[in-house]
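Internal ticket #5521
Category: modeling
Description: The requester needs a full-assembly model to guide mutagenesis choices. All entity lines are attached below as received. Residue total reported by intake: 972.
Assigned to: D.W.
Attached entities:
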Amino acid sequence: MQLSDSREIAAPRPEVWANLLSAETLKGCVPGCQEMTGSAAEGFEAVVVQKVGPVKATFKGAVTISDVVDGESLTLTGEGKGGAAGFAKGGAKVKLSDGDNGATRLEYDVEAKVGGKLAQLGSRIIDGFAKKMADQFFERFQQSVEGPVEETVAERDESSQDGDGEAKKKGWLGRVLGSKKDK
Amino acid sequence: MPKDSGIGASPKRREDIRFLTGTGNYTDDININGQTYAWFIRSDVAHGTINSIDASAAEAMEGVLKVFTSADFAEAGGIPCGWEVTDRHGQPMQEPKHPILAEGKVRHVGDPIAVVVAETLEQARDAAEAVEIDIDELEAVIDMKAAVAEGATKVHDDLTSNLCYDWGFVEENREAVDEAIKSAAHVTTLELVNNRVVANPMEPRVAVGDYNRAGDEHTLYTTSQNPHVIRLLMGAFVLSIPEHKLRVVAPDVGGGFGAKIYHYAEEAFVTYAAKVLNRPVKWTSSRSEAFISDAHGRDHVTKIELAMDENHKFTAVRTDTYANMGAYLSTFAPSVPTWLHGTLMAGNYITPLIYVNVKAVFTNTVPVDAYRGAGRPEATFQLERVIDKAARELGMDPVELRRKNFIQPDQFPYDTPVAVTYDTGNYDATMDKALEVADYAGFEARRAESEARGKLRGIGVAHYIEACGIAPSNLVGQLGARAGLYESATVRVNATGSISVFTGSHSHGQGHETTFAQVVSEMIGVDASQIDIVHGDTSKVPMGMGTYGSRSIAVGGSAMVRATEKIINKAKKIAAHLMEASEADIELKDGAFSVAGTDKSVAWGDVTLAAYVPHNYPLEDIEPGLEESAFYDPANFTYPSGAYICELEVDPETGVIDMLNFTAADDFGNVINPMIVEGQVHGGLAQGIGQALMEACIYDENGQLLSGSFMDYTMPRADDMPMMNVDHSCQTPCTHNPLGVKGCGEAGAIGSPPAVVNAVIDALHRAGHKVEHIDMPVSPARVWKAMHG
């Protein structure tokens, strides 16, 4: 399955870029991530717990960063093995460009693939699942880059939709102002 | 007045008492003291190189006895293939090794890599998670035509390509067929898919291995349709265990449909592991596992051309088929698209020239083998679909076009141009019967009524023939079979007159215990309750080729008749002695022997007792005891045939099909138990209609089976089935077996798919939608798309 989307992040490109290469940021952004170690250069090791339809599993795997064009684009590739549950593989081509008002435009093309029991039992729901995973990842990434307020909001994004929007708006404005100051 | 016992009666199935009350003895019910549990670790990629397997952590876990990999089977042979097909150029098929556990590479999702054996199933399962397997995924080949394209990734590196064989039949007719098609007045062409299906018997596969060190004796309990064949294949080719040290038991088996014919790796594994560990080892398939380890069925892609002269007489048939073998050759896989398919391409019709080309292809998918009908449904589907299309093109009634080309009753025995000789049949009779039962003449009124409700009503006709009662050994030997296809029976009469019949046929739902007893009861005249049918155990039954190819009553039943005849002959000698009469004057009727023309008689029990207490006995002429065996090798296949009519409605808004009724008028020759035959036809129809409307294996481009559970793989349910009108009053008895029986197990699955699809196309055409074909399963989405472009 493939999907493409984009979002505006209220932060300057160098900051967004640095976050893309940060194990700490990625750990916070990969939905269900329990552990994430390593570095952008060496690759990351990750443990992710996810439930896909009827199959819940702990995926152990690696995340690598490749095709790096400094400050502009890179490819994030992840592969997780879930034992009897099968495996999940995914990749995201991420491209950064200058957005409006000093924000950064982040475009991504995501490809996801599952195998084994996940494919056998969960194929009907896998597209929706992959979209949800990608949306959550970039949502969290955006919030992580834009500021700590949003991180806490992200924790309760389902219970308070309005608050979420409100907080995001503020954060975004703050960031834009902040980045203007930086300039 | 219908009979209440013997041949032609419909007593209730005696085996149902245990099946319906939960007292059956299935393989999973067998638990042996000290039993351990095997958990198979299977590939989750369709194609890959195994870099390493590290089982050290798993082997250290509590309860784990051992983790097996291919290294443990270095001495064992591969899983053998039972049929060698010779290609168009006289070369043998390409035959890859099929290891018990993957050696270096995995070739389909579900391919077993390693097995954990532990004290409990839970421990085995947990430890399996700790086995570290490093696999580099390789590109998978899934599509058959892509698999044989230049430069395609190879499923087996040591083969020259993914082409197993390129088979031509009848090769000598190739040019003549081309010429006939070129010069024909009319040629109808159709391209179609015979969809891949999973058999899904209610009982998944199970295997329990046991080993007795004292006697070096192996026992395998397995869900098999043919325990002797498993003993032969596994003993001789895989594990090198001689027959006298290997017992194979297939107790109650909950359905097979073909998928339990084959010798599977799990059987060899538990048998071998039980010896290595000196503990019984049990494996029970989960439903998920069954989807990716039971042999699948069908999976043909075909182009068929039907040539006719100006009088609408068929002049030639040419077919071009790709048949999926999957990743390895399952036991009988090569025979299915060839000898069980090409030989049926004449159908019920006079067609002087036929050429069938089949390319069998390896792909990174689960192996494909025989499934209820095996090759014959594929032949029937394409032929009956193309005839329907031809009738439409010619503006003819499809029934009339068929009748015009039927082989006539006075032409039997009829030599087809595709190597088989039909012994009997009367196709107009079955067609007449089906039209009558289905009220074909009244269709237009029913259609108008449907139309008034906004529904598109259609009627589809198909006529099938099949070759079953498999099979003359010398013939199949010439065609590449590596086994004989006779059957055996032993009839043991006990001292007090009760009878145990040991048959090589295996019953996994067919009701042999009832029908076989009816036959012996009829022959001897003792009550069926005095007759026991024993099957499924190599230590009890002398030899058996098992049950498939609708062969049980035709071949196994014939062996039983021959053995019973020997019993009767011997019993008559004893009776003659007891009554001091000439053996030639002895008559057996209703369980008593009498001297013709006198009132002298002795009861069955007097004779059987004399055989075992031979105080007054012709010891100088015959031995004591009353037990006889017979092997029966059929002189020909039997050829059931029938006319099937499907009537349905299509909802034009949604494409949803409402099956209204289905008529099956079959000619099975003589019928032993009409109720059981009707049930067999019902089951066959359910599977045929399921294939036509619902069932499909969907592989993605990476070889993942997406329809791998009952959430996505649509099994037909009772409420998906229409009213079924089953008639078997048209009977042209088989000419070469003693009971005059044909076979009824597969017929329903053979004749029904084309009748269903013909009915859908008919409904659409009558409503002005010029749709020529919809591939199975004919889902609402496909119907709607066909209607709306």
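Resolution: model delivered.
Comment from assignee: Residues 552-578 of chain B form the longest helix (27 residues).
Ticket closed.
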